[in-house]
């Protein structure tokens, strides 16, 4: 009821406005509704688009790290394998995960990747820096429970900071991995000396033990999306304002001014001035109205002339 009463109060105000003011009011309302709708739609679309771009970079980085892992296990590890038995300290350079992480740290010198981080989150790692937290452990379980899940992506919070992550499962797909991860008795003595015999053992061939993850601060994703949205919204706003200005100019020249001239003609005719005439070259609705007004003026002039002649004949 209140809304209906409010509309009833506004109706007379709207009816008393000039035609140009009414049009501008309608255009402003359309403009506000369009900008608000575009803003919401663009926010959704651009965030998805930026997430896809970030994910694309992350997966490219993962593929690169997998190449590093493969190179380490096939080229580096065989050359240094003998030193694992004779050296007292373990050589981490022989571990694919170590090489991948070190190479990624070097990759972060590139401005495009400086905000990215890489981790091979593992349920039972040899090095505790690779230990999976609760969130990462749950992700590994998802990969284990459903072999059709090849990748995961989303947002997570770490130390009150939001991150966008992409993850893929890593399985023990080479028997050479079990040289260090089957049992403490079979592991190189240098590994035991460096890391102890409590962590990183009892792995099984083809078992998913790791989630390969690349993360980036969520504010980078949102900042990029917001920047694109602001640019697009600025362009839309500019074109909309130009459209409003063009419509106003057209309305003033093609509608308002001709109507004002016809109004003056009508006022003059009502005061007895029948010598004025309004011409409009276009054959649009305004032109048709102008011709009708001129015909009315001629008809009125003829009627007055007939009345005057009749009056003269009666004298």
Primary descriptors:
single chain; 315 residues; alpha+beta; Helicase, Ruva Protein, domain 3; 2 domains; four-stranded antiparallel β-sheet; 63% helix; membrane; Tll0287-like_dom
Note down, in words, how this protein is organized.
By secondary structure, the chain is of the alpha+beta class. The protein has two domains: 39-219, no CATH class; 228-305, HAMP domain in histidine kinase (Helicase, Ruva Protein, domain 3). 63% of the residues lie in helices and 11% in strands. It is built from eight helices and four strands. The protein has helices spanning 2-15, 19-86, 96-107, 134-145, 178-181, 189-195, 218-270, 285-314, and strands at residues 117-122, 152-158, 161-171, 208-217. It has a four-stranded antiparallel β-sheet, sandwiched between helices. The chain is rod-shaped and about 145 Å long. The mean pLDDT is 82. Keywords: Membrane, Transmembrane, Transmembrane helix. InterPro entries: HAMP_dom, Tll0287-like_dom. The chain crosses the membrane at residues 23-46, 232-255. Residues 253-305 form the HAMP domain. It comes from Hyella patelloides LEGE 07179.
The shape is rod-shaped
- The total tally of domains equals 2
What oligomeric assembly is this protein in? single chain
Strand order of the largest sheet: 1-4-3-2
As residue ranges, the low-confidence spans are none
Please write out the topology.
Blueprint: H1 2-15, H2 19-86, H3 96-107, E1 117-122, H4 134-145, E2 152-158, E3 161-171, H5 178-181, H6 189-195, E4 208-217, H7 218-270, H8 285-314
Antiparallel strand pairs: 1-4, 2-3, 3-4
């Amino acid at each position: 009821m209140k809304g209906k009463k409010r509309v009833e109060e506004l109706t007379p105000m709207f009816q008393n406005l000039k035609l140009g003011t009414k049009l501008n009011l309608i255009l402003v309302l359309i403009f506000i509704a369009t900008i608000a709708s575009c803003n919401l739609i663009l926010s959704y679309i651009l965030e998805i688009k930026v997430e896809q771009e970030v994910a694309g970079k992350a997966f490219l980085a993962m593929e690169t790290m997998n190449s590093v892992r493969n190179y380490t296990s096939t080229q580096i590890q065989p050359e240094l394998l003998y030193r694992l038995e004779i050296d007292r300290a373990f050589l981490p350079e022989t571990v694919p995960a170590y090489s991948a992480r070190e190479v990624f740290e070097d990759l972060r010198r590139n401005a495009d990747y400086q905000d990215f981080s890489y981790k091979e989150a593992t349920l039972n790692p040899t090095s505790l820096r690779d230990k999976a937290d609760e969130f990462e452990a749950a992700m590994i379980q998802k990969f284990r429970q459903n072999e059709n899940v090849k990748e995961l992506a989303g947002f997570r919070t770490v130390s009150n900071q939001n991150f966008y992550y992409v993850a893929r499962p890593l399985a023990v797909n080479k028997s050479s991995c079990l040289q260090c991860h089957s049992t403490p008795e079979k592991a190189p003595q240098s590994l035991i000396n460096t890391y102890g015999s409590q962590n990183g053992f009892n792995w099984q061939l083809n078992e998913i033990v790791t989630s390969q993850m690349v993360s980036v601060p969520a504010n980078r994703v949102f900042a990029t999306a917001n920047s694109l949205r602001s640019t697009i919204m600025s362009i839309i706003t500019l074109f909309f304002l130009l459209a409003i200005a063009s419509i106003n100019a057209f309305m003033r020249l093609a509608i308002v001014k001709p109507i004002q001239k016809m109004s003056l003609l009508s006022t003059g005719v009502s005061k007895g001035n029948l010598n004025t005439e309004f011409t409009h070259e276009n054959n649009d609705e305004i032109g048709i109205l102008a011709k009708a007004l001129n015909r009315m003026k001629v008809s009125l002039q003829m009627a007055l002339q007939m009345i005057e002649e009749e009056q003269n004949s009666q004298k």
